[in-house]
Amino acid sequence: MLRPLLIAAVVVLAAGVVSADAAHAVWSGLVIAENVPQPTAIPPELTKFEQTLKDLFGYNQFEVIGQSDKTLKTGEEDWLAVSKYFSLQCDARGENDAGYSLNLKLYKEKDVLLETDANLSRSSPLVIKGPQVGSGQLLLVLVVKDDDHAQTHRRRRVEPANPITAGWHRLRRAVHRIFR
Amino acid sequence: MKTHEEKWTAWLDGQLSGRELIEFESSLPDLAAAEADKRDAHKLGAFLKKELGAQALSNEEFFSHQLRERIARETDNRSTSSTRTRSTWWTIPRLVWSGATALALFLIFSIGIMRQHQPGQQSEYLTQILNSKVDPAGNPNATISIFEVKNENKVTVLWTEGLQTLPADYAAK
What we know:
- The structure holds 2 protein chains of 2 kinds.
- Chain A is of the alpha+beta class.
- Chain A has a domain at about 35-145.
- In chain A, about 25% of the residues lie in helices and about 45% in strands.
- Chain A contains 3 helices and 8 strands.
- In chain A, the strands form 2 sheets. Chain A has a 4-stranded antiparallel beta sheet, with no helix packed on it.
- Chain A is globular and about 55 Å long.
- By secondary structure, chain B is mainly α.
- Among the domains of chain B are: about 5-50, no CATH class; about 125-170, no CATH class.
- Chain B has 5 helices and 3 strands, in the order αααααβββ.
- A two-stranded antiparallel sheet of chain B has the order 2-3.
- In chain B, strand 2 (about 145-150) and strand 3 (about 155-160) form a beta hairpin.
- Chain B is rod-shaped and about 160 Å long.
- The termini of chain B are far apart.
- In chain B, about 10% of the residues are buried.
- The interface between A and B is large, with 50 and 41 residues.
């Protein structure tokens, strides 16, 4: 009588852990935005916010010259998105409630052109306006994607998973939703 | 003027006399039967007086003591239960104070939370730029600004100005 209940509880808990620890992939792209008479289709990773990019930068074509699609397992991986002359070095430094803590460096050949530290949110892409290249503009784009096929894992966190802090954050969000 | 029934009752009780008695007895159809009824009625009266007389209580002190105790007990119970109803902890003033305290706590709590999240502050749901720098040697006039696009995409933008322009060759894959 008790055994089926225990098994069910274990299965439910395991499912909860698996869904809570679903892996994410971060897409990083070096993109050249420019105005051309016949623009090519926008890369699928940018489709969701195509109009936002067009409104922001005023270009009609966004061409990927280098990219990386990295599934984060520990939240502390390094990866590179490279083109012939540029490379974007991404150094993940852990995961927190909001997303991933990243150190980004844009290299022009061997020179660091730009460096930034950011908390990349799962629900908010990051776009960095780089230098003017010819008649176009170099953009760096980072997007967190849900990766359902990625292997589940235990994520390392920047901050310790304090249940009181986590509960407080959840309560804050709930109250904010009420007052929003 | 007495009715026949009144005269009959008075005759049974021996209350009629003189001319009234003679007239009544002469009006009876069968005086002997009436005399027999009178005797039976007297017998019945005597029997009832004998059998239905008040019985003296042999233990009247104990009985009255029991009654007094029971009355006292019931009075106590009634007063206790009414006192209990009135003395519940949730009196009206306490209810009012409890409500006011709860409301005050809620307001303090809400204000505390709202202050922690000022309108200009970056939301934890948005990507946050913690710090950034541009190579100062090659781009001495470069400036950096950060903003969020307020639409459903919630794009965070790090906007640079004054970076050195590069030739079109650098757009190669």
